[in-house]
C-alpha cells in the first residue's frame, strides 16, 4: 500500500502561490483547511460571517446592474479567458484538487478538464441565448420570448466536485449576465481560493484588453453553515444553485421558496444499474468498477445498487468481488492507485454504520475494512465494499456517500424496473444489455425515473454537454449543458402590435 505519506503542506503552499492566491488569504484564520490524503491541517483560513454575507450580496447586486448591460458575446469573452487560464493551470489546479479532497491524479485533472469544457460551451452559448418567435392569433402582431439576466446567483458547492460544479454554474451564470457569489464546502476552501484567483487573472486580462466588467462580479465567501444560511435567506439573491446532500437541500429549497426565490437543486443520488442476461460482461465489469469505486464512491452519480439477472450472476459477481479485493487503495498521488481516501472520519463512520445495517438485513459484506496508511496526520482509507443483499432493503434505499455497492439478483425485468425506481432519489441510472427491447424500455417513459439514464455505460462520469441533475429527492434542478442556461435567466414574453387596430385575444370585445 505504499510507504509513509509525506506532509503535503509545503507543496500546497507552493501550488497556491503558483495559482495566484495571495498569501494573506491563507494565513491568520481559524478555519482549518485539511488534506484528505494525509488528514493534516494544511493552513488556517479566515472565515466570513453573516455581516460579510449581507455586504457581499449588496456588492453583487450593484455588479449585476452593470454586468447585465454588457452584451452577452462580450461576457463570453471573459469566460473564454477563464478557459485559457484553466488550460494553462490545469496541472497545478488538478494537483490541488487531489491534495485537498483526495482524488486520484487523473480525476483531479479530469475535474479541471470539465471546467475547461464548460467554459468552451458557455462561450458558444454567449452567442446563442435565443428565444422563440411564436405564432400569434392576432393580425399584424408578433409574439416572441426574450431572455434576460436574472440577478445575483449564489453557488453552493460540495467537496466532491469542488471546482467543476462551480464552473458549470459560474460559466453559465456569467454569460447569462448575472453576478455570482460562491460558498464552497468548508472541506474544499483551498481549491475554491485557487479557482477564484484564476478567475481574477482572467478578469485582469479581459479588462486590459478593454473589456468592461464591474467590481465584485464574482465573490468567494469561505465559511460554515451560518454563512450559507444568511446568503440563502437574502431576498436580493435571485437564484440559489446548491449541490450537496438531500438534507442540505431540504433546508435550502423551502427557505428560498418561502421568499419566492429561484433554486436549482442537485442533491443526493442512489444510482443503480441493471445487468441483463445479454450484457457484455467484460464491458459491464469495467463500467461497474469505475462507477462504483471511482472517486472512492463519493460522486453524486456513484453506482450504489446493482441488479444482476440470475442467469449471469455467477459469471459476473465473483469477478467483481475479486476486482474489489485487488483494486489499489492508497495515496491518490501515486501511479496505479484507483481508490484514494474518504474525505474524513465522519464518512468512514457512516460507511461502517451502513455496512452493519446491511448485515442485519442479511447482506454478505466483502471488503469495507480500513486500510492502514501511515500518513502525516489523520486520514481515512478504506477498501471498497461490495454487499450481496437478499433483497433491496435497509441501507440500500439510502445514499451513503462512500464506496458501497449493494448487489441483488433478479429474474423478471418489469419487477426489477420497479425496484430500480423504488428509492427516494432519482439522479442517474444505467442498464447493461444487448437486448434492444430492454434498452429502449429502460430509457422510455415507463423505464428509469432518473434525470440521467444510460445504456452500456455506468451512471457516473457525465459529459458537460447534457443537462445534469435528477428527479425526486435529487431536487429537480438541471445544470451544465443542453438548455440548462434558461435556469439562470429571466424569460419575458413580448407581444408587439404593428397594425392600426387593437384586436383582443380570445375574441373579447371591449369598445370604448
Ligand atoms: C457530482 O458528483 O456532484 O457525472 C457531480 C459525473 C460528473 C459530475 C458529478 N461529471 O460523475
Automatic annotation (TrEMBL):
InterPro entries xrefs: Ald_DH/histidinol_DH (IPR016161), Ald_DH_C (IPR016163), Ald_DH_CS_GLU (IPR029510), Ald_DH_N (IPR016162), Aldehyde_DH_dom (IPR015590), ALDH7A1-like (IPR044638)
Catalytic site: 266
Key words, A-Z: NAD, Oxidoreductase
Enzyme class: oxidoreductase
Keyword S-adenosyl-L-methionine on entry: no
CDD domains noted in UniProt: ALDH_F7_AASADH
Keyword Nucleotidyltransferase in record: no
Span of domain Aldehyde dehydrogenase: 30-491
Family recorded in the similarity comment: Belongs to the aldehyde dehydrogenase family.
Subunit (UniProt): Homotetramer.
Name of protein: aldehyde dehydrogenase (NAD(+))
